Amino acid sequence: MTTTQTVNQQTQGNLSDHLTLGHNISTSGPDLATKEFKQASGGNVSDVTFVEYEVLLPGVSGTSVEKNITLDRGTRIELSCRLDNKYSHLKSLQVTWKRGNETVKHINKTETSWSIQLRILDNSKLGSYSCTLKGEEEISAVFNLQVPKIEGKEKPIVSYEGDTAVMICKSFGYTPIAWTWYMTNGSEQIAINDTLLANKYVINRISANVTHLKILKLTNEDNGVYWCEAAFDLGKSKGKLKLKVLSLMVPLKPSLAIVAEVVILVTIIFLYEMYSKKKEKGSEAEKEFDQIEQLKSEESNGLENSSARHRKI
Amino acid sequence: MPPPTPTGRAPGPPDGGWGWAVVFGAFISIGFAYAFPKGLAIFFKEIQDFFGTSYSEIAWVSSIMLATTYGAGPISSILVNRYGSRPVVIFGGLLCGIGMVSAAFCTSILQLYICVGFITGFGLALNLQPSVIIIGKYFLKRRPIANGLAMAGSPVMLCTLAPLNQFLFDNFGWRGSFLILGAILLNCCVAGALFRPIGPATVSVKTQMTEEGKGALKEEVTEDAMEMSSPTDVPMENKTEEEGGKDCCEKINQYLDFSLFKHRGFLIYLIGNVLMFLGFFAPIVFLAPYAKHIGIDEYSAAFLLSILAIVDMIARPTTGIIANSKWVRPRIQYFFSFSIAFNGTCHLLCPLASGYTGLVVYSIFFGLAFGMVCAMLFETLMDLVGAARFTSAVGLVTIAECCTILLGPPIGGTLIDTFGDYKYMFIKCGAVMVLAGTFLFIMNYYNYRMLAKEEKERKVKGDPKEDPVRTENEGKNNWNKETAQDGPELEPLREEREGLKKEVNGTNEV
């Protein structure tokens, strides 16, 4: 296995960061390939890359090997299934490449690997391609070719009537050509036209990979599911967002309940304090009363004693 | 002649009874003050998206809140000196509530800065200081326990607020959550209602002098001796005894005791703590990002903080109990320095922790050390300056700490960004704290020796000199009248003082 990279790559500018292995694959010649692409894309020399993906079979025992490949633009792709050296003793292996029920012909074979080459130029070519090695056992691998996924938000965005809601969709790693927003009306998806309803919807493309939908002056009807759709060369991808519009009464009720609780507690505490102060004053007054009585009795005793002495003398 | 009535002598701090209700109130108040700014972080992402600002602009909300809570310390102290703890806390609770409710209707990030940052921050400042102060008024023998229990409010509140905030946010969005949080903050008023005003601090000063080791006693007496010449400089809890013709400085000193800057213990505490706070909070802020950096998933990283909070929760009251024991209480400053140094060592050893288990062990020890330091943070200050001057002391200390607290995490962040490695941040924090701990240890050793020396000198000069000073310190009460009386009259009182001392040393109730 050589590690030189052939110059069959028609990329302009940077290579995409797809996984490339140093497989020396010969094709029918660069010029022919370019011509074919030119025809396919109507004369524009698009930025076509060539990438290779390889899986090693049989992989981890018990699990089927699956590889997800994300493509956002036209690509020439080679998928290969290679047999591990440990199993190279297995002869008479029948290998089939399939996409769904369709069998792919033109398999390139080497001693231990089987590969197919595909030109993915539009949505119809995407899907799941599987290679099956039939011998004593059946080993298979699946390549899932798909457009980049868009993440929406799992949890609903909560907002209030009269307020503004901001919904954000991001694409990770791949730049879409265009973004479109849809709102769901019953079972239909209606595109949101922000030029038509400029005082209600504002769509901003903050950066290449991020889009904002701002909904102004929310009402109860704005409740529901929204979709952000990213358009790529090879297809479209959607992200789902939920919007919940509440009236101000909803948080107000718990707030008022808590305020009521606070007022009640404070009142109880102050009342208890006044009550215990009264008790203290009461007991103090009693003590003083006792002491005064004591003093009075002592005085009267003293007087009696002095008068007794007086009399004695 | 009738025997002197018991009401002639004011009783010492209750050390129990209603004091425990006060501890509960302080628990709530302190909990909100410390945990609330941290709990708000959950809302920041959504607010950032809503207003379309950058993360640093949102982070300012938290910083302003923290800065106001610490920076408004002196104002809080002045208000407590003037009005007492209860009205201040109730007002603070109202302010917090108003701040958050108005934040719910904000339409710009600037308004958020004002409502959440300044108003709520100021309200929390008015909650924090008085809560700590009133514990000093209600407790003396059991003060470390009371402090430890009250400070435990912070981790408990944090553990409650974090999931609560998440729940509120999921159901009500950030505006509704702020509205409800405003109502929840009104519970600080309930805490304030519990802060029943107790007799003047003069009371606690008297018993304190019989109680706290000879060192603190003589230290206070020296300070008061210096203030004998200008009696109006003596800080008084209730300043009904205002004489006319005071100039500006004396008036300020009445509200906020700047003469504390001449107090040796206070200066030691101030320098040590200001240094410590440089490295105190940064590790908490960066623990979760560090965990994610070395490959741990988000939930496990968040769990580390939960472990920290739970260990913290247990460590604080436990430290309070240990600090109250008869072996530790007289030398509590050493215990404090030790816990700071222990904290620092944890940080220094953190980079050696490998993998999730290592970080869990680090979190446990960090939680323990963090709890120990926090539980004794105010206790040691009370021990050094005494309950009477604690009001002003805490205000001055918090505003000084404010700067370093705010600087700590950004410096750590800069270190991380420059070197691309978290270990330098941990080393910096650990080194700073070990340095602070060692500094405090050495300086307190020196302080204790100086205090012992001064006590000896006082004994050599003879006892009677003490009493007029003591009575001067008490401000207005019956004792003033008794200065005119001669020695023998004071004999029974001195005996009682000795008796109290023996009682305190003998009964180390925990």
At the fold tier of CATH, the topology name of chain B is: Growth Hormone, Chain: A
Low-confidence stretches of chain B: 4-9, 201-245, 465-510
- C-alpha end-to-end distance of chain B: 42 Å
Major pleated sheet of chain A: 5 strands, mixed
Protein chain pair with the most extensive contact, residues per chain? A-B, 27 and 26 residues
Query: Which CATH class of the domain at 150-248 in chain A is shown?
Result: Mainly Beta
Give the N-terminus to C-terminus distance of chain A in angstroms: 141 Å
Globular, elongated, flat, extended or rod-shaped: what is the shape of chain A? elongated
Q: What is the total number of structural domains of chain B?
A: 1
Number of helices of chain A: 2
Strand content of the residues of chain B, in percent?
Answer: under 5%
Overall description:
The complex is a heterodimer of chains A (313) and B (510). Chain A is α+β, with helices and mostly antiparallel strands and 313 residues long. Chain A is built from two helices and 18 strands. Among the domains of chain A are: 97 residues, Immunoglobulin-like (Sandwich), CATH 2.60.40; 99 residues, Immunoglobulins (Immunoglobulin-like, Sandwich). Helix content of chain A is 24%, strand content 38%. In chain A, the strands form four sheets. A five-stranded mixed β-sheet of chain A has the order 2-9-8-4-5, with no helix packed on it. In chain A, strands 11-18-17-13-14 form a five-stranded mixed β-sheet, with no helix packed on it. The radius of gyration of chain A is 42 Å and the shape is elongated. The N and C termini of chain A lie far apart (141 Å). The longest helix of chain B has 39 residues. The two termini of chain B are 42 Å apart. Chain B has one domain: Growth Hormone, Chain: A (Up-down Bundle), CATH 1.20.1250. In chain B, α3 packs antiparallel against α18. The interface between A and B is medium-sized, with 27 and 26 residues.
